[in-house]
Amino acid sequence: MKFFVDTADVAAIKELNDLGMVDGVTTNPSLILKSGRDITEVTKEICDLVAGPVSAEVVAEDAKDMIREGKTLAKIAPNIAVKVPLTWAGLTACKALSSEGHMVNVTLCFSPAQALLAAKAGATFISPFIGRLDDINLDGLELIEDIRTIYDNYDFKTEILAASIRSVNHITDCAKIGADVITAPPAVIKGMVKHVLTDRGLEQFNADWAKTGQKIG
Ligand code: E4P
């Protein structure tokens, strides 16, 4: 399973990237706002740091302008994946941009039917939003399962990029289902290391070691 980091915070990306935890990055307009940076400048910096795909999102609402924006974003670096919304215009832009060889991430996916359309339009990635479905008492993980089944039934090459991840359990559940990629905030990825029994065990080992009076090295 590939790990993408869902942030435009360059320092946070670097910390995880140095550990080999980063296979790609996803951004969106809200994350660019949070970074307080210029989209072109910060995206270029991320693309220089990370070898894998870096998603940068268009903001136009009609297909023609989405395609124009997508081409502009793709010029930032060769590892840009143009992110388009799951609307009819977004699918039109997806088809056009993917036909020209650009990676396309179709975002804001909330149903298996939408995911099927994105695959047929040539999406490189489909981004189903787990957390936002859970927020309205629907089952985000069930959506990942359904898309996995559909894509496997017809051997679609579009990668399932599980998004809107809010917890460590979301990540492990996505891994069990067979999502190709997860994108999560840095804090959630770092949270994967935590276990109360690890902390308790370490505390006990350290206490017992102190009693031995020994030193290593
Ligand atoms: C995905 O590409 C999105 O940027 C992201 O996962 C959305 O997450 P949120 O629902 O926590 O905003």
Automatic annotation (TrEMBL):
<keyword id="KW-0570">Pentose shunt</keyword>
<comment type="function">
    <text>Transaldolase is important for the balance of metabolites in the pentose-phosphate pathway.</text>
</comment>
<comment type="similarity">
    <text>Belongs to the transaldolase family. Type 3B subfamily.</text>
</comment>
<protein>
    <recommendedName>
        <fullName>Probable transaldolase</fullName>
        <ecNumber>2.2.1.2</ecNumber>
    </recommendedName>
</protein>
<dbReference type="InterPro" id="IPR013785">
    <property type="entry name" value="Aldolase_TIM"/>
</dbReference>
<dbReference type="InterPro" id="IPR004731">
    <property type="entry name" value="Transaldolase_3B/F6P_aldolase"/>
</dbReference>
<keyword id="KW-0808">Transferase</keyword>
<feature type="active site" description="Schiff-base intermediate with substrate">
    <location>
        <position position="83"/>
    </location>
</feature>
<keyword id="KW-0704">Schiff base</keyword>
<dbReference type="InterPro" id="IPR018225">
    <property type="entry name" value="Transaldolase_AS"/>
</dbReference>
<dbReference type="InterPro" id="IPR033919">
    <property type="entry name" value="TSA/FSA_arc/bac"/>
</dbReference>
<dbReference type="InterPro" id="IPR022999">
    <property type="entry name" value="Transaldolase_3B"/>
</dbReference>
<comment type="pathway">
    <text>Carbohydrate degradation; pentose phosphate pathway; D-glyceraldehyde 3-phosphate and beta-D-fructose 6-phosphate from D-ribose 5-phosphate and D-xylulose 5-phosphate (non-oxidative stage): step 2/3.</text>
</comment>
<keyword id="KW-0963">Cytoplasm</keyword>
<dbReference type="Pfam" id="PF00923">
    <property type="entry name" value="TAL_FSA"/>
</dbReference>
<dbReference type="InterPro" id="IPR001585">
    <property type="entry name" value="TAL/FSA"/>
</dbReference>
